[in-house]
Amino acid sequence: MNMIQKVEVFSASLPVTQTFRFSSGSAGAAGGTASIALVKVTDSEGNVGWGEGRPMPQWSYETIASVTSTIRDYLGPAILGLEITDRWGLHQRMQSAIGRGPSTGMPVARAALDMAVHDLCARNAGLPLRSYLGGSGQRNTVELSYTLTSHGVADVQREIMEAREKGFRHFNFKAAVASETDRDIARTIRQVAGPEAFVWADANQGLQPPEALALARGFADAGVNVLEQPFPADQLQLMRRLRQQCPIPLAIDEASVSPADFFHYAAEGLVDYLVIKITRSGGIWPSLQQIAVAASAGLPLLVSGLTDSLLTKLAVCQLAVAFGHHGPAALNGSQFLDESTLYPDKARFEFDGAVHLGMHPGIGVQPRQDALEAA
């Protein structure tokens, strides 16, 4: 029987190439660095799998120090000796080591281990992760949504034209950062991007009740397709109130960590989409449960990330296409991070505004360990 024998955790700092702000903080400033945790799981036959967690204190309470220490001192030791295919047992053991609060405890740390175990299992099976999860290897492309960072009309027009030249057709923007221009920006995106573009407004918990309905109506008039997370994650009653008159489809992000979190919103009819974000949700296994809830409620999928590196981008795309989803995916790490030291061949996976998955077993890519050890 093949068991988990060794768990190693590494931290890396990737250069930030462009400033990325949202209402609750920032994913980094140009010239700075972004910290990521990478996990290597080795089984009793010497095979390995890789996972990643990108903690963002502006989004939640996890930091690079807490993620690496949690994996090294708690979660990693808890899963040693576990049969590698026992994903249910994996999460039971992690739960016994780090319990939950109102929702999943330390989801970013859990996600890194979960991802590594799924990568290991699929590699051992000789299958791309999407096929290991029950999908078809022929479904292999996910269109990306380009994240706009400007908050002036002329600058947004320029950004869209440049992105379209690179093959991007869909766009997302951060609302509630420069609220006075949000409606103008939304109208500009629709006009320049065209009628076929999926336009995605993400408020990142930044709106207040008096302005939320008026902004939602303005977005609907401008042709925005979805408004994501208008209110703080723990303010379910505000979503109930907005939903009664809201003319635009709604989605939640920060409010949906565990499958039970999403179930509450879906059961009350408060959301129109499930946003898949495996790092936020504790990994692939819990995300499968969220997808089952969405399917039962008749809700479609969207895909996003935490400005993660290529490993997470490919993992979430593998998960998405297993269930027939081809985008748009707001996976914007390549817009803001220089990943070349870890993934020098990234260009063969991401081009023409899309992610292209190969037939390599597992997630399909692994970081250069020599670059991690030299960091």
What would the keywords be for this entry?
globular; 375 residues; Enolase-like, domain 1; 19% strand; alpha/beta; 16 strands; TIM Barrel; eight-stranded parallel beta sheet; three-stranded antiparallel beta sheet; single chain
Structure description:
This protein is α/β, with parallel strands linked by helices and 375 residues long. It has 2 domains: 4-127, 2-Layer Sandwich (Enolase-like, domain 1); 132-367, Enolase-like C-terminal domain (TIM Barrel, Alpha-Beta Barrel), CATH 3.20.20. Helix content is 38%, strand content 19%. It is built from 13 helices and 16 strands. It has helices at 64-79, 87-97, 107-125, 129-132, 153-165, 182-193, 209-222, 236-243, 259-267, 284-297, 310-322, 333-336, 369-374; strands spanning 4-15, 20-22, 25-28, 33-43, 48-53, 141-143, 145-148, 170-174, 199-202, 226-228, 250-252, 273-276, 301-304, 329-330, 350-351, 354-356. The strands form 4 sheets. Strands 7-8-9-10-11-12-13-14 form an 8-stranded parallel β-sheet, covered by helices on one side. Helix 1 crosses helix 2 and helix 5 packs parallel to helix 6. The longest helix has 19 residues, at 107-125. It is globular and about 60 Å long. The protein starts with a strand and ends with a helix.
Overall 3D shape: globular
Percent helix range = 25-40%
Number of strands: 16
Uncertain runs are: none
- Domains (count): 2
Q: Identify the CATH homologous superfamily of the largest domain.
A: Enolase-like C-terminal domain
Counted by DSSP, the helix tally is: 13
How much of the polypeptide forms β-strand, as a percent range? 15-25%
Average of pLDDT: 93
Protein name: Mandelate racemase
InterPro entries: DgoD-like, Enolase-like_C_sf, Enolase-like_N, Enolase_C-like, Mandel_Rmase/mucon_lact_enz_CS, Mandelate_racemase_C, Mandelate_racemase_N_dom
Keywords: Metal-binding
Family: Belongs to the mandelate racemase/muconate lactonizing enzyme family.
